[in-house]
Specification:
12 helices, DUF4158, DUF4158 domain-containing protein, mainly alpha
């Protein structure tokens, strides 16, 4: 998938309704935020929590989207300009990220989780070869499992692996449905023609007429 496609899948909502749906904190979450010392820390912790909720990532050292900062600051009653003070404290951000992960029971992707995800994606990959649909399913599954989304590159590799597995399962199912005679006939299409002009399959795929203005 392209970088643009991943950006669309992980896009931050714009409308007030979507922002309220995704970033309205529960009372237990607000209590967790209030335990931090100082307004800058409370605001920063709340923003990190918002990103864990949606799109389901650890914000790291990136800057939050303006609309997320605004809705979070309004909820916790803290000036949004205090983010600049919090944003300079890399060590504090890392500590808060770990605290959040532990408090919410969030997990990071492991090899075991990757294997579980690929198994869950198999039925979907058999039904479609559209990477965007498989990627969306992968994201929803990880969120439902309480797993922080990995980097887009890792997700892309998992989607590609799922698509390959799905294709193989489809091909295997088609091959199993063929009779011995049908398999021999198909194999015959791959043998070289007597005139040396490629295979029978190549000949069948060629247009019977030479393209020219009369045939268009």
């Amino acid at each position: 998938m392209s970088e643009l496609e991943w950006e669309r899948l992980l896009a931050i909502p714009e409308s007030e309704e979507e922002l309220a749906r995704d970033y309205t904190f529960a009372s237990a979450e607000l209590e967790l935020i209030r335990r931090r010392r100082g307004d800058a820390n409370r605001l920063g912790f709340a923003v990190l929590l918002a990103y864990v909720r949606m799109p389901g990532i650890a914000l790291g050292t990136a800057e939050p989207a303006p609309q997320v900062l605004q809705v979070v600051a309004s909820q916790v009653g803290i000036r949004k300009d205090l983010w600049a003070e919090y944003g300079r404290r890399d060590e504090t951000r890392r500590e808060h990220a770990v605290e959040l992960q532990n408090a919410l029971g969030m997990r990071r992707v492991t090899e075991a989780i990757e294997a579980e995800l690929l198994a869950a994606l198999e039925p979907i990959a058999v039904q479609t070869d559209k990477a965007a649909l498989i990627a969306a399913a992968a994201i929803e599954l990880l969120r439902s499992w309480g797993v922080l989304l990995p980097a887009a590159g890792t997700l892309d590799e998992l989607v590609s692996t799922a698509m390959t597995a799905g294709n193989r399962m489809v091909y295997a199912a088609l091959a199993d449905a063929l009779t011995t005679e049908q398999k021999r006939a198909l194999d015959g299409l791959l043998r070289p023609r007597a005139d040396g002009q490629g295979t029978q399959l190549t000949w069948l795929r060629q247009s019977p007429l030479k393209p020219n203005s009369k045939h268009i």
